Amino acid sequence: EKSGYEHFMLKEIFEQPKSVHDTMRGRLLVEEGVIKMAGIWDHIERFKNANRIIIIACGTSWHAGLIGEYLIEEYARIPVEVEYASEFRYRNPIITDKDVVIAISQSGETADTMAALKLAKEKGAFIYGICNVVDSSIARITDAGSYTHAGPEIGVASTKAFTAQLTILSLIALKLGKHNGNLGNADFMSLIAELDAIPKKIEDVLSSTHELVQNIAKDFVNATNFLYLGRGYNYPAALEGALKLKEISYIHAEGYPAAEMKHGPIALIDENMPIVIIAPKKGHYDKIVSNVQEIKARKGKVIAVVNNGDTQVSEMSDYVIEIPETSECFSPIVASVPLQLLAYYIAVYRGANVDQPRNLAKSVTVE
Ligand code: M6R
């Protein structure tokens, strides 16, 4: 049921305050200052003694994995590798029984992710699942796991499952960091309070940017290309923003780490190139300011996602989308929301079938 929304995708975008909250419910106990996750706690020794964590996934779930790498390395100080399941399974990777392999999958049925997990299991790795669909194949084959409680996701373009995956990865990183002593109590307490505030911030973003983003989308209905840029935690968010746009609007879009621009993509920039840039205050802001200057010097059209009250990037940008400030590590959760809306409205105005884009299936059960 679309509950009055025109498409499942829009409904699911709007469900995110709830789906993120549901994913934290019973796990994030701010008052007590604890994160409860049975899947992690029951196997804490495996995580503690892990040589490294390998995250495997496809598509949007792989983007969540990249952010998971930043989170886990920053807070738990455990080395993390993130790999496309389809590459991992065919390249004879080195896997040992000291590795922890985390598979991320909304459907829990993705063929490549499943095959990669089987391989890791055969080699003795401890395998952990982050799935949305309860009792799915991946959820069943893994040694342990944590469900994202996003609820059923019908739109082929993943939205609420992605932010729920980021929520779980945040919880895991903070829990492991606290446990192994890399994350001090004061920092842990302030991070969990920030995380707890995310559903409300998503709600604010939905109400404050919905109309604005619709208007921005109207100006880009005929665009043929888009670049999405971000740095640090928001580099994978840029990849995800670009994927959303291309899969539902069929406009070619690429995501890049902003600093990589001068290694090639800057050659593409002219007055016809729209560039979405994610520029929150916390997270290499000064560097982003110079990236925006470089783009404007070449007349690119900048759509900037900035924090409320931003001036420097905003003054240079053609379009400004304001979002509330949060810790850098959680900013992709909030920043992704207007990017989902942007992709959605551009696709709708182009008359595309947003919930069922051409050539795509909700779960990719063949390789
Ligand atoms: O169900 P999974 O999370 O394993 O699916 C992985 C990808 O097929 C999926 O994220 C795909 O990229 C989506 N259409 C993205 O919106």
TrEMBL record:
Q: Can you cite a GO biological process for this protein?
A: amino sugar biosynthetic process
GO CC annotation, single: cytosol
Record-listed E.C. numbers: 2.6.1.16
Catalytic residues per the record? 362 (for fru-6p isomerization activity)
Keywords for this entry? Aminotransferase, Cytoplasm, Glutamine amidotransferase, Repeat, Transferase
Report the enzyme's class at the first EC level: transferase
Q: Where in the cell is it found?
A: Cytoplasm
Q: Does the keyword Repeat apply?
A: yes
Superkingdom per UniProt: Bacteria
Q: What does this protein do?
A: Catalyzes the first step in hexosamine metabolism, converting fructose-6P into glucosamine-6P using glutamine as a nitrogen source.
* Protein name, UniProt field: Glutamine--fructose-6-phosphate aminotransferase [isomerizing]
Q: Which gene encodes it?
A: glmS
Placed within the complete protein, the shown segment runs: 251 to 617 of 617
